[in-house]
Amino acid sequence: MAKKLPKVDVVIVGVGWAGGIIAAELTKQGLNCVGLERGKERKTEDYFMVHDELRYALRYELFQDLSKETITFRGNEKFRALPMRQYGSFLLGDNLGGSGVHWNGQTYRFLPYDFEIRKKTIERYGEKKIPKEMTIQDWGITYDELEPYFDKFEKMAGISGEENPLGGKRSSPYPTPPMKTTPSLEKFKKAAIKLKLHPYSRPSGNLSKAYTNPDGVSRAACQYCAYCERFGCEYGAKADPVVTVIPVAKKTGKFEIRTHSNVRRLLKSGNKATGVLYIDTTTGEEIEQPADIVVLTSYVFNNVRLLLQSNIGRPYDPKTGNGVIGKNYAYQVQKGSATGFFEKEEFNTFAGAGALGMVVDDYNGDNFDHSNLNFIHGGSIAISQTGLRPISNNTVPKGTPSWGKEFKANSIKYANRVLSVGGQGASMPFKHHYLDLDPTYKDEFGDPLIRITFDFEEQDRQLAKYLSDRCVDIMKEMGADHIDSLEELGPYDITTYQSTHNTGGVIMGADPNTSAVNNYLQMWDAENVFVVGATAFPHNSGYNPTGTVGALAYRAAEGILTYRQKGDILA
Known about the structure:
By secondary structure, the protein is an alpha/beta fold. The protein has helices at residues 17-28, 53-58, 99-102, 112-115, 117-125, 143-157, 183-194, 245-251, 300-309, 405-413, 458-478, 546-566, and strands spanning 3-4, 8-13, 33-36, 71-74, 82-83, 200-201, 211-212, 218-219, 255-258, 261-269, 272-280, 285-296, 327-330, 337-341, 357-360, 379-384, 418-425, 434-442, 448-453, 482-485, 503-505, 529-531. InterPro entries: FAD/NAD-bd_sf (IPR036188), GMC_OxRtase_C (IPR007867).
């Protein structure tokens, strides 16, 4: 028999970026919120002087324990899905702050094209441009409608940057200036300009200077130590939930965080949730937390899994295309790149920061003509100087043996003579790409794991090769003596790291028949349940998703407050 606690205004499942924003915004307005986090407590002091590449980057200190919970994966329905037993393609965060602690800080706004992708694609190219099995849809919100929430997220996080010349219009500049321009970034910038492209400094959650945000939170400037992705920031210079929004929520006295609390089910009555059931993993006790409003803000896979396990929303059926929970899973196309080897130049690439880079968007979204191309959308192209730490980085030209005298010689020769220009391609959804509950494999509590069915399509292969060729153009202009690049995109490989940019499964839209949530991320089928995060994306863009997740979280917070006052499904 589960222990039943007193009811609260709002229960928040998962306390990372989305959960922290929701908690801060609701508690500032007087609502009593409980945040349930299945991991442990975190604070900046945990990372003082911990530049330990082996512990964090290679032994995954900050990530989910796959022996207790993982995902299963298959390329298509003909195969049996198998569990991911070791980390590869993506890294699932754990503990307070979630993936918002170990991210790099790259903070983009999706393009206006993204939010009306179906409409705009058909207007320019006709409906035949969209493959039959591709399930793109408009988001039920425009860029202009979401812009104020992008602005709010950037000011809270102190994003450092300069205006994207090919991006959507901004209501105000970035709150802090762009990061430093290193020699390698300057080389990319000059080459891009010669090619008549439009380079700009990457928007960065790593502060270019000390900053105090509108909530009164002060943080120090980035030290360019190069320990960002897979690491917590010892300076507090990298925006993360633990140093920004969570302290604001806690200061109100209205926010209680319960760590080691693993939510297993949403409880419901009719078309409303009544609370959640969770396990205190320190004692094994089952606890019921009643609430007027339930907000799911955990990672993509867990948001979908909880809804399916709780029988809330209509599960997606890939055979008929009906249903919405699990629909439109998308990833990212990361393989389009060019690596240049320089014989006479050296670069200090051991220094850097997670979001230090230079970007062009000339081949992103619909910023270029796709009439004679066999794909839609595109991707950002960038040079990054995140810092090449010694264990993980040992780039040598193709054809070099993987061990022995020649390998050692080339490793030493090119240690500071390698630059890479990479394309980050959008991922379009297809009818047969989806998430559901695995019929065989279960977690430590006996609940089914989430199952991914996904593979790269011809759309992805064409896009990856196109971006790779454009990267080669830039690298040639940069003067590389030898260039290695993608020849062909093979099947999706879950064993090799690509990005942690998983999206979809509880997608937003204007039609309850094709979407799970409205543009406030309120569920059509359960009006007091809001599902916040990249689960809402109907497709993934050619950018990192965090900036758009943050904007949607602020939009959802506003929706929750309105629902609290008025009730019913929001218009």
